[in-house]
UniProtKB/TrEMBL annotation, chain B:
Keyword annotations of the record: Dioxygenase, Oxidoreductase
Record's keyword annotation contains Oxidoreductase: yes
Gene: pcaH
Protein name: Protocatechuate 3,4-dioxygenase subunit beta
Family recorded in the similarity comment: Belongs to the intradiol ring-cleavage dioxygenase family.
UniProt key word Oxidoreductase: yes
Molecular function GO labels: protocatechuate 3,4-dioxygenase activity
Length: 206, 246
């Protein structure tokens, strides 16, 4: 016999179900008067925030090509200088005017999500190599049994993307473009997420 | 909030054997919403091990009281009054302070307050069905609510969800993000539910079932259910001797 290690196990994930918006964005579904505003809604920046303002739009599609209208999308990103506004950030002080976290329920009719944010700076990989500017995405919905993690990169950063150690991890290179947003206009990007089938977005087990 | 220094270590690898796989055809909606390609394994970088802090200051006093937070003055929702309480822990067994816990549920009749909800059970005019709280320095949380009812849903021809409360938990790293559901001890619908049965591990299912807690039950007022939630643990960084980045 040996001593037990004493670890306990993570609680199992369950689908967010069709009414995740009641819990996470109640004002969006017409439940007013409980929370002043939906957490993570609105622009991620204020007037003082440093960095280039960008708009990111996208739609989550299922394996049949239909847009999900009951998904919830969250993003997490570094500030203009590449620092996270988090106690676990040890490299420096993040912009106090930028939390870096946002949440979108998608449009009621089309399902399209929108984030008004800034372009993040570069963040180092564990071995010190620089990752290209990226935003972490987390997607939950009815029919998704465990939240899906992915990343969005920017199309203009060709050189940085080419040396990004996470993108380099993707064996099938034809899948890399699923993580690179499309430019739609000045500082406006489209990042569609395909859950299944042709053009299936790369998701990470992190 | 806590005197512990912030933790910067990577998270333990996720034990996928206790989590539902993406493709669970008996839960029909998963069929077209499940990625088919392998997930790309990635030990968390700074982008995943960090996460925002939610301050207690953002909470209103009734945020964790679903009995009163949507009720008209002097009125209350109908149904059994309950207290739900427990701790948010990590896999090392340590309490997770400052975790944002959000919850939502159907009313006592099994009906959600949502435009797309079609179940014929009545909407309760005094019940919104949503609340939130932030764990204290030991990871403890609690809220008052009305015990939700089971409800039918279109999947099989006669599928019913056991009574449940949905939970979204935000710990210290974006990698810890978790959404799950709490079930109630003794509900015969638990072991028949296709969504419960997406979890492949029987013990992992049991850990989603909250027991009746008579010690925390408030006499002549409300029964209590205890529900602990475990988030991923992380390694200590005693040996972090290589500066990252620069
Ligand atoms: Fe539900």
């Amino acid at each position: 016999m040996v001593q037990p290690l004493g670890y306990i196990k993570e609680s199992a994930s369950q689908t967010a179900g069709p009414y995740v918006h009641i819990g996470c964005t109640p004002n969006f579904v017409g439940i007013h008067g409980i929370f002043d505003r939906d957490l993570g809604s609105g622009a991620l920046y204020n007037d003082e925030t440093r960095g280039t303002r960008v708009t990111i739009r996208g739609t989550v599609y299922d394996g049949g090509g239909y847009a999900l209208r009951d998904a919830l999308v969250e993003i997490w990103q570094a500030d203009d200088a590449g620092f996270y506004n988090s106690p676990s950030e040890t490299r420096g002080e993040a912009d106090p005017n930028f939390l870096g976290w946002g949440r979108s329920p998608g449009d009621m009719d089309t399902g399209e999500f929108v984030f008004e944010t800034i372009k993040p700076g570069r963040v180092p990989f564990k071995d010190g190599r620089w990752m290209a500017p990226h935003i972490t995405f987390w997607i939950v919905a009815r029919g998704i049994n465990i939240g899906l993690h992915t990343r969005m990169y920017f199309p203009e950063d060709e050189a940085a993307n080419a040396e990004d150690p996470v993108l380099a991890r993707i064996e099938h290179k034809d899948r890399v473009p699923t993580l690179i947003a499309k430019k739609e206009g000045d500082n406006t990007y489209r990042f569609d997420i395909r859950l299944q089938g042709e053009g299936e977005t790369v998701f990470f087990d992190i | 909030m806590s005197n512990r220094p912030p933790e910067t270590g990577p998270f333990f690898a996720r034990d996928r054997d206790i989590h539902p796989p993406a493709y669970t055809p008996w839960y029909k909606t998963s069929i077209l919403r499940s990625p088919q390609r392998a997930l790309i394994s990635l030990e968390g970088t700074k982008s995943e091990i960090t996460g925002p802090v939610f301050g207690h200051g953002m909470l209103n006093p009734l945020d964790n009281d679903l009995i009163l937070n949507y009720a008209k003055p002097g009125e209350m929702p109908i149904g059994p009054r309950i207290l739900v309480h427990g701790r948010v822990l990590d896999e090392r067994g340590a309490g997770v302070p400052g975790a944002l816990v959000e919850f939502w549920q159907a009313n006592a009749g099994g009906r959600y307050r949502h435009k797309k909800e079609t179940y014929l059970a009545a909407v309760d005019p005094n019940f919104g069905g949503v609340g939130r709280t932030i764990t204290d320095e030991t990871g403890y949380y609690w809220f008052k609510t009305i015990q939700p009812g089971p409800y039918p849903w279109p999947n099989g021809v006669n599928d019913w969800r056991p009574a449940h409360i949905h939970f979204s938990i935000f710990g210290h790293g974006f990698q810890q993000r978790l959404i799950t559901q709490m079930y109630f001890e003794g509900d015969p619908l638990i072991w028949r539910c296709p969504i419960v049965k997406t979890v492949p591990d029987e013990d992992a299912i049991r850990r989603l079932v909250a027991p009746l807690d008579m010690n925390a039950t408030i006499p002549m007022d409300m029964r209590a259910y205890k529900f602990d939630i475990v988030l991923r643990g992380r390694r200590s960084t005693f040996f972090e001797n290589r500066p990252e980045g620069n």
